[in-house]
Structures are given as C-alpha cells and as structure tokens.
Amino acid sequence: MSGMQDQIEIKFRLIDGSDIGPKSYPAATNVATLKESIIAQWPKEKENGPRTVKDLKIISAGKILENNKTLAECRSPIYGIPGGVTTMHVIVQPPPDRGSGIERKSGSRCW
Question: What's one GO-annotated cellular component (predicted)?
C-alpha cells in the first residue's frame, strides 16, 4: 500500500502552456532534484531555458516550493488523489542584468 502512495505523478507546466511530463517521483524527492530533472528535460527548441537550479521557481497549490523541502513535506491534500497527476507551474527567473542600471529592492520579486 505505501509503495504507490510514496510516488507522486507530476507534470510541469511551462510559461507558454506546454508541459514536461507527467513522470512519477518518490515522495522523498527534494525540490532541488525536481529542478535538476526539469533542466535535463527542458525542450531544446525553447529559448531562455534555465541553466541552474537557481534559475527556476516551482509553484504548487499557490506556493513557491523551497529547494531543501521534499515532495512529502510540500504535499497538499490534492496529491493524494489515486491515479491523479499533479500539475506544478515552472517559472524561469533570468539572472539579473548587471549592465541595465536597474536596481532591485531587496526582498522584491520580479516575475
């Protein structure tokens, strides 16, 4: 019984509406590992793809997931639907443009 519940079926929705997956991940998988998987599966034809884990934000159930958390720790009630696929949204956060002259206030987020 626990073998199947320890797996979470996830697809990642990109900003243009396309998807990566679905693929099954163990509940013990941390968010940083998910991001590495997304980078490895990123469609080659898409411009401005992520280069590092720091370039990505994963959003699930309206929350930005932290790299050090596992899927089990991030689990919401909708993850428990048998046979269901969880959709997580992926945002590529480009590195700051150091030559633009634009300063970001500390703590502000620009998407």
Answer: plasma membrane
Structural domain contains residue 102: no
- Say whether the peptide bond before residue 50 is cis (omega within 30 degrees of 0): no
**Separation CA 100–CA 110 (nearest Å):** 15
Number of domains in the chain: 1
Distance CA 14, CA 95 (A): 18
Residues of the chain above pLDDT 90, percent: 52
Query: What is the domain extent for residue 39?
Result: 7-92
Distance CA 12, CA 34 (A): 10
CB–CB of 70/29 below 8 Å? yes
**Which CATH number goes with the domain that contains 33?**
3.10.20.90
pLDDT above 70 covers a percentage of the chain that reads 73
